[in-house]
Specification:
Helix content of chain B: over 70%
Order of helices and strands of chain B: HHEHEHHEHEHHHH
Radius of gyration of chain A: 18 Å
Strand order of the largest sheet of chain B: 2-3-1-4
Helix content of chain A: 25-40%
Largest sheet of chain A: 6 strands, mixed
Strand content of chain B: 5-15%
Number of strands of chain B: 4
Strand order of the largest sheet of chain A: 6-7-8-3-9-10
Strand content of chain A: 15-25%
Distance between the termini of chain A: 27 Å
Number of helices of chain A: 8
Number of domains of chain B: 2
Radius of gyration of chain B: 31 Å
Oligomer: heterodimer
Structural class of chain B: alpha+beta
């Protein structure tokens, strides 16, 4: 579903955000993307949505080479992808309903369809009673759930999340993360950028780790924390749904 | 069919949403529309006046006439003889006699001259024979006829109004061109004015534009609200211009009526012509749309992935 082949991104400032990154996330997989801030996580996600173009290499999304996508096809490509952001990126001059309905309005869904799907999405994130509220009156966790409802309302094939739990406490984070696992069960390919160690330690979820623009792959970044986690979670050696193809990593963390 | 319906529904939604935004920002919208209205009313008023001037010229053109001012002491039999002689000219259609008393009387009827006439003891006006050439006589024919009439016995002076007509035509051409040039300059100013309001609106709604772009909104979808805003601003600006122009023309109507009485012709300046009004509305709407298109396209090109 998402395949990067030797993708590099150099910004006009000369900064190399990604260096020859290659990996493949199959359809219906769920993966985490880890790395320090500035390691290239956001760059990688923005390359998938084609908000930016790679300097070198090839990106295939849903069997389409988006490095050579025509400008007219970009909107259709983006409608395949739902995005969740740390700062929610909601429109604060519109109701919760209107925010969630936005992807459907953009893609030209009928009014009846829109109402039905918005309510289904809000129901899934348990905010059905807030559809008429303005986002500003909601808590941070609720706003994030509105953002998630908006990301999934048009049933995208891919769900990307950039630090979705960044501003939330542990309990709210777990709720949010639980939602992502649920969507993944509905055959959505999910990629979550996070630095929250509690989730990165989950061995059942494959991990892409970026360091200074290079992909190094591991189940956790920190060995000691990883060991502690193993004691707590008792992971079984499960078959990963995702296979990652790392390029020669300069630093092997394992 | 369903898609067509949805498409129109989206357009209607944007239309009413834009109207809603106007009413939410009453003061700034009103100021913009007023500025547009004032700007656009100037060409509308000038064009109407220029049209009135053409109508004025047209009426004269339809009835060219040569005025023969007769010598002051010419006896009436001689005048009759002269009149009959000239009537027999092949190029002459009709000869009308205006006596000096009648001429004075005409002057007295116009308020402005009443006092002056009252102060004069004797009538200074000559008798006049007004000669109307046949309609198929051209400009040169009239000139030749005038030369011929000048040398008639008892004629002090003969003058045709074509010089005046030529001048009027020249003035008309000049005024029309000036109005067109002025209209273009004003239009450019208005495009910049609308472009500026659109630019501010884009800045206010930058996050919305980014989010819609992210969600897969087509450029047409992103542009639509701004195009509606520009077009509606233009339309209301045009409407405002019509009101201003109509008001100004009402204020001008009294002096214009007097003027047309003085020249004894119909100036036909009752108000704005409906065709001009319609043209103004279409033009101002188009102007707003163009300004918005120009501005938002620049913003969209910045969104292109790099």
């Amino acid at each position: 579903m998402i395949r990067f082949s030797h993708v590099s991104k150099r910004y006009p400032s000369g900064h190399d955000a990604l260096r020859s990154v290659s990996f493949h996330l199959p359809k219906g997989s769920m993966s985490f993307l880890a790395g320090h801030s500035g390691a290239g996580k956001s760059t990688l996600l923005r390359l998938i949505t084609h908000a930016i173009t790679p300097t070198r290499g090839e990106i295939n999304i849903d069997e389409q080479n988006i490095s050579r996508i025509k400008p007219r096809q970009i909107p259709l490509h983006r409608r395949k992808i739902g995005c969740v952001f740390q700062d929610h990126k909601l429109l604060y001059d519109r109701s919760v309903f209107d925010n969630v309905a936005l992807p459907l309005i953009v893609s030209g869904a009928t009014q009846r369809d829109t109402g039905r799907r918005v309510r289904a999405a809000l129901d899934k994130v348990q905010l059905l009673d807030k559809e008429k509220s303005m986002p500003i009156t909601l808590s941070g966790g609720q706003q994030q759930r509105v953002g998630i409802a908006r990301a999934v309302v048009s049933s995208p094939k891919i769900l990307l999340a950039d630090e979705p739990t960044g501003n939330l406490d542990a309990e709210l984070s777990d709720q949010i993360m639980h939602l992502f696992y649920e969507f993944n069960h509905h055959d959505v390919t999910v990629l979550i950028a996070t630095h929250d160690q509690r989730y990165l330690q989950d061995p059942s979820t494959p991990l892409l780790t970026l360091q200074e623009g290079r992909l190094i792959t591991g189940q956790a970044q920190d060995k000691t924390e990883h060991d502690e986690a193993q004691q707590e979670t008792q992971p079984e050696p499960e078959n990963n749904p995702a296979t990652t193809t790392p390029n020669p990593a300069p630093a092997d963390e394992q | 069919m369903k898609q067509v319906k949805t498409y129109f529904r989206r357009h209607l939604q944007v239309f009413f949403h834009t109207l809603g935004q106007f009413s939410a920002q009453k003061v700034s919208t009103a100021l913009t529309i007023l500025a547009l209205g004032i700007g656009l009313s100037i060409p509308a008023i000038l064009l109407t006046l220029a049209d009135g001037l053409s109508a004025f010229g047209g009426q004269w053109q339809g009835k060219p006439q040569i005025s023969m001012y007769l010598k002051l002491d010419l006896p009436s039999q001689q005048i009759d003889a002269l009149s009959q002689k000239i009537s027999a000219y092949p190029d002459v259609d009709e000869v009308k006699f205006i006596s000096k008393e009648q001429g004075l009387n005409d002057f007295t009827q116009h308020g402005e001259f009443k006092d002056i006439v009252a102060q004069i003891d004797s009538n200074p006006l000559p008798d006049v024979l007004v000669v109307y050439p046949r309609e198929d006589v051209g400009l040169e024919g009239i000139e030749a006829l005038t030369t011929q009439l000048r040398v008639e016995q008892g004629v002090q002076h003969a003058q045709y109004d074509l010089d005046w007509l030529k001048r009027l035509n020249a003035i008309e051409t000049f005024i029309k061109r000036a109005v067109y040039i002025l209209s273009i300059i004003i239009s450019i100013g208005l495009v910049l004015l609308i472009a500026n309001t659109i630019r501010l609106e884009i800045a206010n709604r930058q996050s919305e534009i980014d989010i819609i772009d992210q969600l897969g909104g087509t450029p047409a979808f992103v542009k639509r609200p701004f195009l509606y805003m520009g077009a509606l601003e233009g339309f209301f600006g045009g409407l405002c211009a019509l009101l201003i122009a109509a008001g100004v023309l009402v204020l001008l109507s009294t002096p214009i009526q007097k003027l047309s009485q003085l020249y004894d012709i119909q100036l036909g300046l009752s108000g704005l012509h409906w065709q001009l009004s319609l043209l103004l509305l279409v033009f101002s709407t188009l102007l707003g749309w163009l300004a918005a298109q120009f501005t938002i396209s620049r913003t969209l090109s910045e969104l292109r992935p790099q």
